[in-house]
């Protein structure tokens, strides 16, 4: 019996970064197959965070969905609620007052600020810079206080309602938020300087997880991940929703395309958000009462469909809401979150880097697993010499 | 297996071990990570839980209190049970947030078991969506105080 | 030689006030309109159960008022909203949608409890107990 | 911008608008692949990206509707390519080799709605839908799934 097949069996280490892991704050299982130190293949295995939100949205009425949809992701909850509410307003053909638009943009920019500070703090923690993590989180508490003053709750702000916002802002609150934002501005400038000069950060982040512009577009990566590779996409400047048409701001892009560039794009965007917030606090129009009377909102939603885009902290977030006019529930709600594209097709980014770079690259994509939890991913080996780990050999080819 | 409601004397003796330095292990069973960033914020120097000896344990084997956030999805429910069995005795579970206490807004969904008490025995519930960092610390301090008095009823 | 900047920072931190708030002994500043514990004031509540329909987490159950309480005439069906704080997400939808503004909201946030509690004793405290004669 | 897209008119059956102002082209499912390969040819493969694939189960019409939302890059304009496929055994050919970015959308539509994308080797059932739903062979987003 001749030898039919020779199987070259290298010792490929299969490293499960399990659903419970000090570095990961959310349940995702990264199975990294590494040959020695170099990562050969990453199998991203999810399913731990799937809560069936789209089916749940079909079972609840339009107004109850605002609060379910806001709980898709804790860090970007206001952006989800705002995008969903604008979709319902397009179906209803309802116009909202200018003041409500400005207040929505102010709340979203405060949320972008604290989200960018959080992901930079988690990146500092993952590369072992514990002290910087503690300092950034300390300053982030001030932004949470500003958000609590504006919307009434620190994280999940339930601030948006069909037809406007749920709380108005008076002079005292405006002053409090203003000096909090001004104090945070110099702190962020200081942290940006630390990220530019500190040798440990530069060694760990520069030239790690490099992505070219054409790869970004082919894999439809969005948000700071795309802008760090020179692709200029930003829903705020293209869709000009809410009050972004009247507020001067510029889209930040860099060209290096590695993890360090992604972090610097986030710091620059944080400074940009501060400029927007200060501009809003100075030019807040007072044309009408932004708080709609929730007792008189229409019960019956006419048939129709709407597709709205919004620039969440991690990229372009889109909502598709369709109502068939008969039921008070939506017929179909489709949520496509930025992490859905960024994490799932990012298997190709890890190939060629060492195991120590795995958490760095994953954190530089700003993973929001609770956003991403829609689908399963399977191993993507991109033109890599296929090596047979023991486990798959046992399963039989 | 010594749990809360075995003999009162035993509970008080064993709980004296962890009363001064309870180490937390945080497991997110399908949460919207609102509660996770609040747990993270409560570890930072502003609230400084190290005054009570509270610290994030590096691995589950060193943990005393398992902080569960999130509506337990069916798939991460098995991982929660396995994690609970891996913890050394005496062990307690704190359910943080409306989703972990009773399922929150997702309790009717098809892929959610709803509430941590359907998978593991829970010692302390901290409602709120998300509870403030002070509320989380307040819950843990209440659990520690309850351990001293040892007047434990529920399993 | 970039090192002295670190020394300056270290010295700054040495003299600056500690950033920690001694939480249980020194209360942290809570905004007056923070969304905390809330319960129904049964003098105004008419038992229309609109709040339990609108609650996104279905935590409000309309339960009958026990016998030994004086029920105002405006509540014919003698039922009141019972909020199960375990599942409540504190979105204040019930407060904004209640046609009679019958909800009392506080910014109380320390709700940790070994058992899942609800708003029964708070709501019933708004009613007068019937004094048993003899 | 519309001048570059008039090659679409040869494929479209009808055009409509999804609020607010997204031009929609209804195409037949068989020539979806040729539409995208022509788009790569005309626009170049790094000047548009597929933002999302939305599958909707139209139970009373007995059809499943698939919308491909494509963002044209320099001006970031969103256009929609809409196809209808029969509901009983829905299958359409995959675009995974032309555009790697459709992988998440196709995997999700397969796992939630049961649409088979011919040629996509990565379709797996039941990694994120809990295992008891998979055994019952149900697709959660179908209207009659009774989940």
Automatic annotation (TrEMBL), chain A:
User: Which cofactors are named for this entry?
Assistant: Fe cation; Ni(2+)
Q: Which Gene Ontology molecular function entries are recorded, alphabetically?
A: NAD binding; nickel cation binding; oxidoreductase activity, acting on NAD(P)H; quinone binding
Pfam families associated with the record? Complex1_49kDa (PF00346), NiFeSe_Hases (PF00374)
Q: Where are the transmembrane segments?
A: none
Q: Where is Ni(2+) bound in this sequence?
A: 73, 76, 368
Report keywords, A-Z.
Iron, Magnesium, Metal-binding, Nickel, Oxidoreductase
Q: Which residues bind Fe cation?
A: 76, 371
* Signal peptide location: none
Tell me which residues bind Mg(2+).
Answer: 54, 335
Decide whether keyword Iron is in the record. Answer: yes
Q: Which InterPro entries match?
A: ComplexI_49kDa-like, NADH_Q_OxRdtase_suD, Ni-dep_hyd_lsu, NiFe-Hase_large
Residue ranges occupied by any NADH-quinone oxidoreductase subunit D domain in the UniProt entry: 127-294, 300-374
Q: Which domain of life does the protein's organism represent?
A: Archaea
Protein name, UniProt field: NADH-quinone oxidoreductase subunit D
From TrEMBL, chain B:
Keywords, in A-Z order: 4Fe-4S, Iron, Iron-sulfur, Metal-binding, NAD
Q: Which SUPFAM superfamilies match?
A: HydA/Nqo6-like
- In terms of superkingdom, the source organism counts as Archaea
Q: Which Pfam families does its entry note?
A: Oxidored_q6
Molecular function, one GO term: NADH dehydrogenase (ubiquinone) activity
What cofactor requirement does the entry state? [4Fe-4S] cluster
NADH:ubiquinone oxidoreductase-like 20kDa subunit domain segment(s): 32-143
InterPro entries, A to Z: Complex_I_20kDa-like (IPR052375), NADH_UbQ_OxRdtase-like_20kDa (IPR006137), NADH_UQ_OxRdtase_20Kd_su (IPR006138)
Query: Where does the signal peptide begin and end?
Result: none
Q: Which family does it belong to?
A: Belongs to the complex I 20 kDa subunit family.
Tell me what this protein is called. NADH-quinone oxidoreductase subunit B
Taxonomic lineage per UniProt? Archaea, Thermoproteota, Thermoprotei, Desulfurococcales, Desulfurococcaceae
Automatic annotation (TrEMBL), chain C:
Any GO CC annotation of this UniProt entry? membrane
4Fe-4S ferredoxin-type domain ranges (all copies): 36-65, 79-108
Per its UniProt record, what SUPFAM superfamilies does this chain match? 4Fe-4S ferredoxins
Which Gene3D superfamilies does the entry link to? 3.30.70.3270
Q: Name one GO biological process term.
A: aerobic respiration
- What GO MF terms are annotated? 4 iron, 4 sulfur cluster binding; metal ion binding; NADH dehydrogenase activity
Q: Which UniProt keywords apply?
A: 4Fe-4S, Iron, Iron-sulfur, Metal-binding, Repeat
Q: Name one Pfam family in it.
A: Fer4_7
Q: Which PANTHER family match?
A: FORMATE HYDROGENLYASE SUBUNIT 6-RELATED (PTHR10849:SF35), NADH DEHYDROGENASE UBIQUINONE IRON-SULFUR PROTEIN 8, MITOCHONDRIAL (PTHR10849)
Under which name does UniProt file this protein?
Answer: 4Fe-4S dicluster domain-containing protein
From TrEMBL, chain D:
- Cited Pfam families: Complex1_30kDa (PF00329)
SUPFAM superfamilies reported in the protein's UniProt record: Nqo5-like
Q: Which domain of life is it from?
A: Archaea
Q: Quote the InterPro entries the UniProt record gives.
A: NADH_quin_OxRdtase_su_C/D-like (IPR037232), NADH_UbQ_OxRdtase_30kDa_su (IPR001268)
- Could you tell me which residue ranges the NADH:ubiquinone oxidoreductase 30kDa subunit domain spans? 26-145
What GO terms are given for molecular function?
Answer: NADH dehydrogenase (ubiquinone) activity
Record-linked Gene3D superfamilies = NADH:ubiquinone oxidoreductase, 30kDa subunit (3.30.460.80)
Q: Family per UniProt?
A: Belongs to the complex I 30 kDa subunit family.
Protein's UniProt name = NADH-quinone oxidoreductase subunit C
Give the species this sequence originates from. Thermosphaera aggregans
Q: What lineage does UniProt assign to this protein's organism?
A: Archaea, Thermoproteota, Thermoprotei, Desulfurococcales, Desulfurococcaceae
């Amino acid at each position: 019996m001749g030898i039919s097949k020779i199987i070259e069996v290298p010792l490929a280490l299969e490293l499960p970064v399990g659903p419970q892991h000090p570095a990961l704050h959310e349940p995702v299982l990264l199975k990294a197959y590494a040959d020695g130190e170099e990562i050969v293949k990453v199998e991203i295995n999810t399913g731990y965070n799937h809560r069936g939100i789209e089916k749940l949205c079909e079972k609840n009425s339009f107004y109850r969905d605002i609060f379910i949809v806001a709980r898709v992701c804790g860090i970007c909850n206001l952006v989800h609620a705002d995008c969903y509410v604008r979709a319902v307003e397009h179906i209803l053909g309802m116009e909202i007052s200018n003041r409500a638009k400005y207040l929505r943009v102010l709340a979203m920019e405060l949320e972008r600020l604290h989200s960018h500070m959080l992901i930079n703090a988690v990146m500092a923690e993952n590369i072992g810079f514990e002290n910087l993590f503690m300092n950034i989180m300390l300053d982030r508490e001030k932004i949470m206080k500003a958000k609590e003053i504006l919307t009434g709750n620190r994280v999940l702000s339930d601030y948006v309602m069909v037809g406007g916002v749920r709380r108005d802002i008076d002079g005292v609150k405006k002053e409090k938020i203003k000096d909090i934002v001004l104090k945070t501005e110099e702190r962020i400038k200081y942290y940006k300087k630390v990220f530019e000069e500190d040798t440990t950060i530069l060694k760990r982040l520069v030239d790690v997880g490099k992505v070219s512009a054409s790869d970004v577009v082919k894999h439809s990566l969005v948000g700071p991940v795309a802008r760090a590779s020179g692709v200029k996409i930003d829903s705020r400047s293209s869709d000009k929703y809410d009050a972004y048409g009247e507020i001067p701001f510029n889209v930040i892009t860099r060209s290096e395309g590695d993890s360090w560039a992604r972090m610097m794009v986030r710091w620059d965007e944080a400074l940009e958000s501060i400029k927007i917030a200060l501009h809003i606090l100075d030019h807040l129009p007072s044309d009408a009462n932004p708080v709609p009377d929730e007792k008189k909102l229409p019960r019956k939603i006419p048939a129709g469909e709407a597709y709205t885009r919004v620039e969440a902290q991690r990229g372009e977030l889109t909502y598709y809401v369709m109502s068939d006019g008969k039921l008070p529930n939506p017929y179909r709600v489709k949520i496509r979150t930025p992490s859905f594209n960024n994490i799932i097709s990012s298997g190709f980014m890890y190939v060629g880097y060492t195991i120590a770079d795995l958490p760095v690259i994953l954190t530089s994509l700003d993973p929001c697993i609770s956003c991403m939890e829609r689908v399963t991913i399977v191993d993507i080996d991109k033109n890599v010499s296929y090596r047979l780990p023991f486990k798959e050999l046992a399963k039989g080819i | 297996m010594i749990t809360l409601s075995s003999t009162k004397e035993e509970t008080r003796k064993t709980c004296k071990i962890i009363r001064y330095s309870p180490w937390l292990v945080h497991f997110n069973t399908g949460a919207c990570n609102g509660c996770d960033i609040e747990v993270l914020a409560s570890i930072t120097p502003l609230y400084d839980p190290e005054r009570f000896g509270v610290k994030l344990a590096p691995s589950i084997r060193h943990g005393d209190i398992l902080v569960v956030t999130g509506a337990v999805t069916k798939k991460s429910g098995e991982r929660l049970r396995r994690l609970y069995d891996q913890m050394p005795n005496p062990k307690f579970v704190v359910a943080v947030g409306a989703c972990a206490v009773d399922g929150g807004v997702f309790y009717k969904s098809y892929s959610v078991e709803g509430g941590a008490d359907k998978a593991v025995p829970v010692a302390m519930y901290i409602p709120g969506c998300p509870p403030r960092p002070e509320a989380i610390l307040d819950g843990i301090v209440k659990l520690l105080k309850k351990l001293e008095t040892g007047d434990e009823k529920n399993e | 030689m970039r090192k002295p900047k670190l020394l300056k920072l270290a010295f700054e931190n040495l003299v600056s006030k500690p950033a920690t708030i001694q939480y249980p002994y020194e209360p942290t500043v809570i905004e007056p309109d923070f969304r905390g514990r809330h319960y129904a004031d049964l003098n105004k509540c008419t038992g229309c159960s609109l709040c339990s329909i609108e609650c996104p987490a279905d935590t409000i159950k309309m339960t009958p008022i026990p016998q030994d309480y004086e029920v105002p005439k405006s509540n014919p069906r003698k039922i009141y909203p019972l909020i199960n704080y375990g599942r409540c997400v504190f979105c204040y939808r019930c407060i904004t949608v209640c046609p009679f503004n019958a909800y009392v909201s506080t910014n109380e946030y320390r709700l940790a409890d070994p058992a899942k509690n609800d708003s029964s004793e708070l709501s019933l405290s708004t009613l007068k107990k019937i004094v048993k004669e003899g | 911008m519309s001048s570059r897209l008039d090659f679409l008119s040869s494929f479209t059956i009808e055009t409509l608008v999804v609020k607010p102002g997204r031009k929609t082209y209804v195409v037949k499912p068989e020539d979806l692949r040729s539409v995208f390969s022509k788009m790569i040819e005309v626009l170049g493969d790094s000047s548009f990206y597929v933002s999302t694939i939305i599958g909707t189960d139209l139970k009373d019409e007995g059809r499943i509707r698939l919308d491909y939302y494509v963002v044209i890059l320099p001006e970031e304009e969103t256009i929609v390519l809409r196809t209808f496929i029969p509901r009983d055994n829905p299958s359409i050919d995959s675009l995974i080799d032309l555009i790697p970015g459709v992988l998440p959308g196709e995997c999700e539509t397969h796992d939630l709605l049961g649409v088979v994308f011919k040629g996509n080797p990565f379709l797996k059932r039941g990694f994120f839908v809990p295992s008891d739903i998979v055994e019952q062979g149900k697709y959660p987003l179908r209207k009659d799934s009774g989940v």
